[in-house]
UniProtKB/TrEMBL annotation, chain A:
The keyword Electron transport applies. It comes from Winogradskyella echinorum. This is 4Fe-4S binding protein. The keyword Iron applies. Residues 440-468, 471-500 form the 4Fe-4S ferredoxin-type domain. PANTHER family: FERREDOXIN-TYPE PROTEIN NAPH (PTHR30176). The chain crosses the membrane at residues 7-26, 119-142, 163-182, 208-228, 240-259, 293-316, 355-373, 393-414. InterPro entries: 4Fe4S_Fe-S-bd, 4Fe4S_Fe_S_CS, Electron_Trans/Redox. Gene3D superfamilies: 3.30.70.20. It comes from the Bacteria. Keywords: 4Fe-4S, Electron transport, Iron, Iron-sulfur, Membrane, Metal-binding, Transmembrane, Transmembrane helix, Transport. SUPFAM superfamilies: 4Fe-4S ferredoxins.
Automatic annotation (TrEMBL), chain B:
Belongs to the FAD-dependent oxidoreductase family. This is NAD(P)/FAD-dependent oxidoreductase. It comes from the Bacteria. Keywords: FAD, Flavoprotein. Residues 3-285 form the FAD/NAD(P)-binding domain. The keyword Lyase does not apply. Its cofactor is FAD.
């Protein structure tokens, strides 16, 4: 069994290694026809750019994106410099250089990778999946009888911020940086999943398709790990199945199929304001121009945020979304589970959390207000501030860096819910409802707590669960995503997530159940 | 300002200090020789097992004490002079008090076994024991076998700890079945099986005779009383119970027995000196409780109570219904009210026992043979709601009521399989009753009696 695990690890690392090397491999040769197509599709009028590419790129062999990409970005900046100087605004190129490089890379890729997509897919994704499963499945036996399996978490480098943890951190952060800021380097990855993308939407894959596909793969594999680890806990099994279902079906398959059916790309479970660009001009226009289905999506999106989400939170707590449906939550609860103990439990962190998350909520609301104002008045500015500048800042700082690079990249260091806890504006909104008007609570079982601290340690949201439990108080916190792990790891059966009457939900206590009843009355009634 | 000095920063001393602070402005000093800050002793095992770091066992952040004006002093108190109200520290320091609270907890029992002080022999009580174990048994390569002596709750925790690092464990238990002084037969049997299932070499009805040393004064092996068998090992864990940690006051005027003798107000024979927690011994046992109760909850309740007395509202210690909990490797155990093992079981106490055909799940319900009054319940692998059982005990419900409304009491996580109908079916057959289970009702659960 141990041997299978080790072999699995090696296979996984080979797959991962090839995957990691791909951005720098591959050959590209842009032919004249493809070049002309791009020029006309992109409506490029800059002869500076066209000539430079013709002399430097077209018909030439390039080994690796790192040789091709600088040529393109140089050509764009030369062109733009010249046109700015000559005030030829219509000739300037506004396409980002990495998008242009990605486009050219995609059409011009020719060598081994482009011609053996299936094989290379197997060598990366295939080996990764097989290796990871070989590493994970033997746990059915190795972990022994069912029960809580946290032995050694703080002894192991991977889960105790050791060197493996830092390597994972570097890998994840780099991956997100490529995805958001240097997507041309994802070109080879897109090639591998072209067949899948074509089967679904009919289009070749872009880097976001790679991301979506990887997301599903990673979640599925790590969900297997969850099933094994928490096989005694049916709540965890159901919850994991639910997030997996919503990710694969709602976030991945349905939007792709909708594209095939000439409908707008839409994830029906992605609620505003997490889906921050829902009200952006381009999206509204797109929806309105898409007839019936577009209008349906528009109405659905609004109803989802204004009615469905809060009503469900009233009945079940925000967990129904954050740890049963949401994609960010889904990744956190599968890939992120080994890191949940790293969330900071200090009062200081709680203060930071409240400032940050509410600041993001205010930000998104103001931005959306500006967007709608601009949309209806058709003016690009509000009180002299450019709406698009605000949108770009939000997309960059919050949408990409916070949610992506920090939110996931920092899993091994700050825990798996950094984004959900400190940044997600939807979570902040759900949190208000959960805190002030909901039937959800984590009930503390009378006086049974022994202050051991397992619950606090494993709360991914950094809630000091013990602080409540040891006082006999129910846990009512806006940030609780109802993952149920605190209840699972408690060795004394103290915690139960439940939905019940609002009355008595919040129950501050001084003296715990089990002591003198008169004393309890005396002190607790005060 | 009155100066309250508390010796011991465990759950009892800290609870007391917190409550005094809530009620008054008195000067509070907590003295401890063990650690700078309060930590949860019950969580020591999880540190060794790698579930937590030591800092996670500390229920309050370090700024808490200063903010609440609770002074902490690290040091070992050697003697207490009650006449001059002075404490003498081992390092020569002294401290004056106006009121003194002894909350010094327990220490592991040693029964005079030959070799009990060798290098490699340890208890599992203090933080130093944990550090010691980390040194002596970091891995199965360094510690080839460990022998644990004494089959109580700490013994099984130590076995689980060592097991988590794959260190072979032999577990010597004096009783004929694990913890059967407390647990009824069926449950005790189930735990025996469970222990063996975890590849722990459980030896029942087995006593330690002697611990042998190698030429360097390290543990080499143990000899078993009954068979004279010699077991080679590197570590011996002594977990045959605990006793009050009060040697330092034996020479003072404070009355002691096994523990510090206290009345129902937790007062000792000397005015302004009190004792709480593991080290306090009641002159007369309260109800079915023992005069010394070395459990977490008791320390906490005593702390809650004594704070009132010290702050001018003199109140007797009147614990409510007994409850407790533990975990035997993977099996959670809870108990409410009294369910006796075969030892000390009153004649009127009748049991109903249900066990899952396959899983390690069972319950035992105790009730009065003649009146049918519900007396208590033990549950294994099912969580129960403390409030409900506390209420049923107060209301002196009969066992039929408990059986019919068992669903209200279930505290397992959502979607867990429920066994109430199986349980009641068996109950009906055994006692010729015709009970049916009632649906869980939030109204009943949350209606305060
Ligand atoms: C491994 C383990 C697991 C346990 N699990 C459970 C459980 O699951 N449930 C449960 O109910 N109970 C459990 N217990 C028992 C519970 O921990 C004790 O009942 C409780 O901690 C006692 O608290 P206390 O405040 O009375 O004393 P302690 O926590 O023992 O604190 C006393 C402190 O006083 C210090 N001290 C003693 N003498 C002096 C001196 N002369 N000068 C200065 N300082 C001194 C000691 O060093 C110690 O720090 C467990 C105990 C152990 C060891
Ligand atoms: S309090 Fe419990 S259920 Fe809520 S987020 Fe933390 S661990 Fe999950
Ligand atoms: S895990 Fe359970 S016993 Fe431990 S501190 Fe949390 S609620 Fe209390």
């Amino acid at each position: 069994m141990k041997a299978i695990k080790h072999i699995g690890l090696v296979i996984f690392l080979i797959g991962l290694g090839i995957f990691t090397a791909l951005p720098l491999l591959g050959t590209f040769n842009l032919n004249e026809t493809d070049f002309n197509t791009i020029i006309s599709n992109q409506n490029i009028k800059s002869e500076v750019f066209i000539n430079e590419l013709k002399s430097e790129v077209v018909g030439k062999d390039f080994n690796g994106m790192q040789t091709l990409s600088p040529k393109i970005s140089k050509a764009i900046s030369n062109a733009n410099e010249a046109h700015t100087k000559n005030k030829e605004w219509d000739k300037k190129i506004y396409t980002k250089s990495s998008d242009m490089a990605a486009m050219i890379g995609k059409t011009s890729a020719n060598g081994f990778i482009a011609n053996n997509k299936g094989l290379v897919w197997f060598l990366t994704f295939g080996l990764g999946i097989i290796g990871a499963l070989m590493f994970i499945l033997p746990n059915v036996i190795l972990l022994g009888a069912k029960g809580i399996k946290n032995d050694g978490i703080y002894h192991e480098s991977a889960t105790n911020r050791g060197w493996i943890g830092w390597m994972v951190f570097i890998f994840l952060v780099s991956f997100y940086l490529v995805l958001y800021f240097a997507s041309e380097y994802a070109t080879n990855w897109t090639l591998l999943v072209d067949p899948i993308s074509e089967a679904l939407s009919g289009n070749p894959a872009g880097h976001w398709f790679v991301y979506g596909f990887m997301y599903c793969v990673v979640m599925t594999v790590m969900a297997v790990r969850m099933y094994i680890k928490y096989r005694h806990n049916i709540y965890q099994v159901f919850r994991t199945t639910s997030v997996l279902f919503f990710q694969i079906v709602f976030a991945f398959l349905i939007p792709e199929i909708m594209v095939r059916l000439q409908m707008p790309y839409y994830d029906f479970k992605n609620a505003f304001p997490l889906d921050y660009d829902f009200f952006f001009q381009w999206n509204l226009k797109n929806l309105i121009n898409n007839g019936g289905i577009g209008i349906f999506i528009l109405v659905w999106g609004i109803v989802l945020t204004l009615i469905i989400v809060p009503v469900m939170v009233y009945f079940f707590g925000k967990r129904w979304y954050c740890s049963w449906v949401c994609g960010c939550g889904g990744l956190a609860e599968t890939l992120g589970d080994p890191y949940r103990q790293h969330s900071d439990k200090s009062l200081f962190a709680w203060k930071v959390e409240r400032y940050l998350i509410h600041a993001v909520l205010v930000f998104v609301v103001v931005m959306t207000g500006m967007t709608l104002y601009s949309f209806f008045t058709e003016s690009g500015t509000v009180l002299g501030i450019q709406t698009s500048t605000v949108q770009n800042i939000y997309s960059l700082i919050i949408g990409s860096i916070f949610a992506g690079v920090i939110g996931t990249g920092f899993y091994p260091i700050f825990g798996n819910r950094v984004w959900c806890r400190f940044g997600c504006p939807l979570a902040a909104y759900l949190g208000f409802v959960q805190r002030f008007k909901s039937r959800f609570r984590i009930t503390t079982n009378g006086g049974q707590c022994i202050s051991c601290g397992n619950c606090s340690t494993y709360c991914e949201q950094g809630i000091d669960v013990r602080a409540y439990a040891q006082k006999g108080e129910n846990i009512i916190r806006s940030s609780c995503v109802g993952c149920g792990i605190c209840s699972a790891v408690c060795p004394r059966g103290v915690l139960k997530l439940e939905n019940g009457p609002e009355k008595g939900r919040i129950n501050p206590t001084e003296i715990l159940l089990g002591n003198d009843v008169d004393l309890m009355d005396l002190v607790n009634q005060k | 300002m009155e100066h309250i000095v508390i010796i011991g920063n465990g759950i009892s001393g800290v609870t007391l200090a917190r409550h005094i602070r809530k009620l008054s402005d008195k000067k509070i000093t907590i003295v401890s020789a063990e650690t700078d800050y309060f930590f949860s002793r019950t969580a020591l095992m999880y540190v060794y097992m790698g579930h937590m770091k030591f800092e996670h066992t500390q229920p309050y952040e370090n700024w808490f004490w200063k903010k609440n004006r609770i002074e902490l002093k690290k040091g070992y108190i050697k003697t207490v002079e009650t006449k001059s109200k002075t404490l003498h520290f081992a390092d020569g320091d002294t401290l004056q008090y106006d009121k003194l609270v002894i909350a010094t907890g327990s220490k592991p029992n040693k029964f005079g076994w030959p070799g009990q002080d060798l290098n490699g022999v340890l208890g599992m009580y203090h933080k130093q024991d944990l550090e010691n174990l980390e040194k002596l048994a970091p891995s199965k390569e360094v510690c080839k076998r460990a022998v644990i002596v004494g089959g109580g709750l700490i013994g099984i925790e130590l076995a689980e700890m060592l097991n988590s690092r794959k260190i072979p464990v032999t577990f010597l238990v004096r009783e004929s079945s694990f913890w059967n002084g407390v647990l009824p037969e069926g449950e005790s049997q189930m735990i025996n099986e469970h222990i063996k299932h975890h590849h722990i070499d459980l030896r029942l009805s087995t006593n330690l005779k002697e611990i042998k040393s190698d030429e360097n004064g390290n543990v080499k092996s143990v000899i078993i009383e009954e068979t004279s068998e010699e077991l080679t090992c590197n570590v011996v864990g002594l977990t045959a119970g605990v006793s009050p940690n009060i040697d330092f006051i034996k020479d003072s005027e404070i009355e002691t027995g096994r523990g510090v003798k206290v009345n129902r107000f937790l007062e000792t024979n000397i005015p302004d000196v009190y004792a709480i927690g593991d080290c306090a011994e009641q002159h007369e046992a309260i109800g079915n409780r023992r005069p010394i109760e070395a459990v977490w909850y008791t320390g906490r309740m005593m702390g809650e109570t004594l704070a009132q007395t010290i702050c001018g509202n003199r109140i007797a210690y009147k614990p409510g219904h007994w409850f407790n909990s533990a975990k035997f490797l993977d099996i959670e155990y809870q108990t409410y009210g009294w369910v006796h093992g075969s030892k000390g079981r009153p004649d009127y106490e009748q049991h109903f026992h249900w066990k899952h055909p396959k899983e390690d799940i069972c319950i035992t319900v105790a009730f009065h043979k003649d009146t049918n009054e519900f007396l208590g319940i033990n549950t294994f692998g099912i969580r129960m709601r403390h409030e409900i059982f506390d209420r049923w005990l107060t209301e002196k419900r009969d066992v039929n009521h408990v059986m019919s409304y068992l669903k209200d009491a279930n505290f397992d996580p959502e979607f867990y399989k429920a066994y109430e109908s199986d349980i009641i079916k068996q109950f009906n057959t055994e006692f010729n009753t015709n009970l049916t289970t009632h649906k869980k009702s939030w109204k009943r659960i949350f209606s305060k009696a």
